[in-house]
């Protein structure tokens, strides 16, 4: 036998035991705390061992329990950040994708996987009201935003050959940190991102946007792109897309929509997302509001030629000689990566297993859960809402206690997990619902737990 070969019987036992671990994990998820009681010292002690000279064989599976016990579970009562719940069919798709080990660089390297990815990208485009948009899957919203702004620059002020010239981009002050990060990575410079003030609903103020662009023109600067956020990370606010699209059109600027968190809610509440198709590019995260295992971001756009301007850099060894358009297609010509995982298989399996209606209803339930929590907060005199609830984020605070201390107590109690945001200088407790496992009972627990944590602070 060769070095890495495993006898059939042993491989079969290993695969069966691995699958059993997954099944047991899923079936007992409810018994786990919302967040593991662990520490950096403990995880370092448990998981920093040296790579042994001699293999441990199937003994490695014994570690899984310990790893799971020190991991954040994708359970019903985790409401922090924007973390999807890792739908099991998608997880099984991940496993099968790894078994196939496709390198989805191009049709030539991965025929079925390439066509499947192009198909699911089309499904996502349809789901958000952008039929005809094309694109690719990527690690997440940050990668999608970086690719989008790279395309924006190449379309408006080409830099790939001669290097970057100074230019300006615009996003609201509630934009996700991946926007300034992308602008820094592109060498545009974070100071050349104008953070536009927001209204009382945390939406970009278009009057301020217009004023900022006019000021930059007067100063001889070169505006090239606007980023509208549909579902801001802190409060779920939806920037006024139609007005922003008008500004982009008048000024001939690239319009990128960061819909990493929010845009897939268009499946359930399309009216809130009217005008998405006016964007030049759009980021989505199926690992957020389509409940897929991480990573599963997507960049949609309308123009393959601009994508190629931005990303095509073919070395001779990957040059494609085929003339058939499907067979000649290469993701590496139109996106950032060369070696790429078969991310589309989990979506292909999960979206078809459940069907479109199931996802629409799951998203609608998340939206209802957010409204339920908002009502429970309004009914509790000790608590106060800090932002309108537009999508599935609820930001609130205890009126009299130290909210940061409440959050620490709450997490330590382990029954629910919330994260935080800073809104108009105030520390906010923040719950986000993008979780197909959450029930109405779980939502009711949030207010009870916050009050219990606040009460404990007095002791
Ligand atoms: C609005 C928005 N944009 C971008 C991102 C980044 O996405 P990812 O974490 O998948 O890179 C997030 C993450 O929460 C987000 O909410």
Automatic annotation (TrEMBL):
Pfam families: Pyridoxal_deC (PF00282). The modification N6-(pyridoxal phosphate)lysine is found at residue 288. Its cofactor is pyridoxal 5'-phosphate. The keyword Nucleotide-binding does not apply. One of its GO terms (biological process) is amino acid metabolic process. One of its GO terms (molecular function) is pyridoxal phosphate binding. Keywords: Decarboxylase, Lyase, Pyridoxal phosphate. Belongs to the group II decarboxylase family. This is Pyridoxal-dependent decarboxylase. The lineage of its organism: Bacteria, Pseudomonadati, Pseudomonadota, Alphaproteobacteria, Hyphomicrobiales.
